[in-house]
Amino acid sequence: MPAHRLPRLTSLRPFEYPGYFAVWVGALISNIGTWMETVAMGVYVTQTTGKAEWTGAIVALSFLPAVVLAPVGGALADRFDRRAYAGLGTLLQAALAAVLMVLAFRGQLSVPVIGVISFLNGCVSTLTYPAFSALLAELVPPEDLHLSTSLNSAQFNLGRIMGPTLAAVVLQAGGPAWALLANTLSFFAVLVALWRVVPPARDANARREPLWDGIRRGITVARDDEDISLVLVATFFVAALVAPFIGLVPVFAIRELGQGAAATSLLVTCQGAGAVTAALCVGTLAELFGQRKLRGYAATTIAVLSGVYWLAPTLQVAAVCIFFLGANYLVLMSSLSASCQNRVPRELQARMGSLYSMVLGAGYSLGVWFQGALADRMQLRFVTIASSAIFLALVLTTRLLKPARFENELLPQADVQPFSDSAH
């Protein structure tokens, strides 16, 4: 459907900008392929090793590079042409997917190989994502940045809905190699979309800033801004204590619920459906409550919903629970991400996005591996519910100590003091 014919919902307003709409569609097609690969490899590792620790470790390897490389990716994205930079990263990801596909068709797939490819893909993704995120921010006006972030999360979760469903069919009919083939081909949709986009002109002075100075400047700005610092701390704890529910879905479906690949796909799909539903409503909710109050409510309720999900006795109950958990997760994370970028001028948005990715990657890789490792030595439900309870305690403590951070709205971008080249 053409962007200009979409319903006039507040949450869909970024679709009125053709460049944003084109990149959004291309990313959706790519993410469908990515989720086909994710489900196929998650089931393969879980069934091959029988260990939650291995499943968590493979997921962690794809996020671990963000701990070191995210600030570099952000500085590079603010230094070079973002469209070309994102296109190069997409080509490298397609090449890695192709290697995995060829190995699968030749019967040479193994858990160590999957781990190496996951790590390399994580490196490329970490270096590329800040450029992609900042490019999307350039394609909409500042007042629609939160909406564009939510819709970007929505397309990711639409892929989460469609990809696992297709993966279940493909795995049943032909095995993991065909799911990997679909993922390899899907990257070309992003390349076509990037080729069609004409981003706004960049400030030439931003490209001449030395790389290390650019990294240091981004870190300094984040450190000195109390709102950004609090958002990054919150992101780490969400990623470490709650978000592992995403990577441990195969373990929960297979070990706790006694199901298989179809159940894994169902749970992943339901999480995506919840996220997409939330993306359609997040604009209205933000206008009703304000972004900061909405973020506070989402941070409080996500721990409760996470605990209820892990207590689910049957697949049907778990599917319903993860739908609402996925919705809550999107509202919270899109708000945290947009808050980082809204606090700074456009020239620093990629660097703020990269710091957000770094903290998210560090927390998630640590949390999904550690919770998986503990689940092999203790009961999975006990480990995950305890993690959710710890997060809830942290949120309630923060609300008591810093109530204003949950009530007062963030300053708009225009009110943020501009940063000169000497700010670092």
TrEMBL record:
It is found in: Cell membrane. It is a multi-pass membrane protein. InterPro entries: MFS_dom, MFS_trans_sf, TM_effector. It comes from the Bacteria. GO terms for molecular function: transmembrane transporter activity. GO terms for cellular component: plasma membrane. Gene3D superfamilies: MFS general substrate transporter like domains (1.20.1250.20). The keyword Transport applies. The chain crosses the membrane at residues 20-45, 57-77, 83-104, 177-198, 230-254, 260-282, 294-311, 317-340, 352-370, 382-401. Keywords: Cell membrane, Membrane, Transmembrane, Transmembrane helix, Transport. The keyword Membrane applies. Residues 19-405 form the Major facilitator superfamily (MFS) profile domain. CDD domains: MFS_MefA_like. This is MFS transporter. It comes from Corallococcus interemptor.
